[in-house]
Design goal:
Elements lengths: L1 E3 L5 E7 L8 H19 L4 E6 L2 H9 L1 H13 L2 E7 L23 H17 L6 E6 L10 H25 L2 E6 L10 H11 L4 E6 H6 L4 H11 L3 E6 L1 E5 L5 H8 L10 E5 L3 E5 L2 H5 L11 E7 L10 E2 L1 H12 L8 E4 L15 H21 L3 E2 L2
Parallel strand pairs: 2-3, 2-14, 3-4, 4-5, 5-6, 6-7, 7-8, 8-14
Antiparallel strand pairs: 1-2, 1-15, 9-12, 9-13, 10-11, 10-12
Helix pairs in contact: 1-12, 2-3, 2-4, 4-5, 6-8
């Protein structure tokens, strides 16, 4: 979906296909047929933006076979779909029964991460619509925080510097400008937007910046204005933003609240939990079940938030809520001003199938749900003065 910003530029809105597990190119093509095109039709649009997630095998196939890449581009066109952004965070196995910590491997100290991200950039340059010259890729925020030392930090800095050189060369070769954004996430080396400033300043490359995920922003209790002000003051480019919402529990000491949270503690994904107090500052656990354990480490005298991407248009049942207000505040800053701070927006609710059993959708319900999320995002953008384009 495209929108005209008051400054005359085009803002793109997509939804991320990591909600539909696929590891191979054949699986990606099936996604387009079985999910993405039905969402477009449900919205009644001639064109729909999707943020592709390409696992390592699919990315390798497309990067090494020009005919396969042309075939995917043809299939996108045929189904009324377009791609300006890729999710390059998960490497493989995102549809496995248990993902948890595996999603952070390989990290930016491992050569595989550089090669995979380079492949994604090359693929995206070939998938961009003819009238679009800029693409974006979101990626791992360096690494999970454990086992991170200065030696691995040096390797990561060198890898990102090499990536910047490759992106420059790709631009010279194709005329397409591909940018990569580190996506701060709780528990990672770059947990917050502020944590991203030092390493990105050290790299100092315009094509490498930040992907602001509004669920992660909220989970870490970051104030959107302060976070975006700090990035802007440091000259860090916001490559893209993922529009998402976290779980919010206002009174975690109450038994009914803890019972409600327990329904979201599931074995597939990691759901980091955070709270902040005047005395202890920001406190957290790596997963929600750790926070809920008897005598757990999180103070329960202040609200808790959990890294669980809940559907944008549907608040969890009381006594829980979502952090949609944080998303709205961030979106106002991102695209509501005289110029947009980013032109690539992506709804990323990959946890539909990890919802409590009674809330998990079938295929038709998933199509309706994704369409409803996009309609909510569309309404938020038009309320900010952006004009929806055909």
């Amino acid at each position: 979906m495209r929108f005209r910003h008051p400054d005359g530029s085009t803002v793109h809105l997509a939804y991320c296909t990591n909600v539909h597990p696929a590891e191979t190119l054949d699986g990606v093509l099936a996604q387009l047929r079985d999910h993405c095109e039905p969402v477009r039709r449900r919205l009644g649009r001639d064109r729909l933006g999707i943020g592709l997630w390409l696992a390592k095998d699919a990315a390798h196939a497309l990067a090494t076979d020009p005919s396969a890449l042309r075939g995917l581009r043809t299939e996108l066109d045929r189904r009324g779909l377009e791609v300006v952004t890729l999710n390059g965070f998960p490497y493989e196995g995102f549809g496995a029964e248990e993902v948890k910590y595996r999603v952070y491997k390989p990290d930016w100290a491992d050569p595989e991460r550089l090669e995979h991200t380079t492949s994604l950039a090359r693929v995206l340059a070939g998938l961009l619509p003819d009238d679009v010259s800029e693409g974006s890729v979101s990626t791992l925020p360096l690494a999970w925080r454990t086992a991170w030392d200065e030696a691995r930090a040096d390797k990561a800095r060198a890898a990102l510097a090499t990536l910047g050189e490759r992106l420059d060369a790709l631009h010279e070769l194709t005329g397409r400008s591909i940018r990569v954004g580190l996506e701060p996430e709780p528990g990672c080396v770059v947990e917050t937007t502020r944590d991203a400033i030092a390493p990105l300043t050290a790299i100092g490359h315009d094509r490498i910046g930040v992907c602001v995920d509004t669920c992660h922003l909220a989970t870490s209790f970051e104030d959107p204005d302060e976070a975006l002000d700090a990035l802007e003051a440091a000259g860090i480019r916001i490559v893209k933003s993922q529009l998402s919402a976290a779980l919010h529990a206002e009174h975690p000491s109450r038994p009914e609240v803890r019972d409600a949270l327990a329904a979201f503690a599931e074995p597939r994904f990691l759901h980091q939990a955070r709270t902040t107090t005047a005395t202890a500052g920001l406190c957290g656990t790596d997963d929600l079940d750790e926070a809920l354990a008897a005598g757990g480490p999180l103070p329960d005298t202040a609200p808790w938030r959990a890294h669980f991407h809940v559907p944008l248009h549907a608040d969890p049942a009381a006594p829980l809520t979502s952090t949609l207000p944080v998303l709205k505040s961030a979106l106002f800053r991102l695209v509501g001003g005289a110029r947009p701070l980013t032109r690539h927006l992506e709804v990323e609710t990959y946890t539909w199938q990890a919802l409590p059993a009674e809330l998990r959708p079938g295929r038709a319900q998933l199509t309706d749900g994704i369409a409803a999320e996009l309609m909510l995002a569309r309404d938020l953008l038009t309320d900010l003065g952006l004009k929806e384009l055909p």
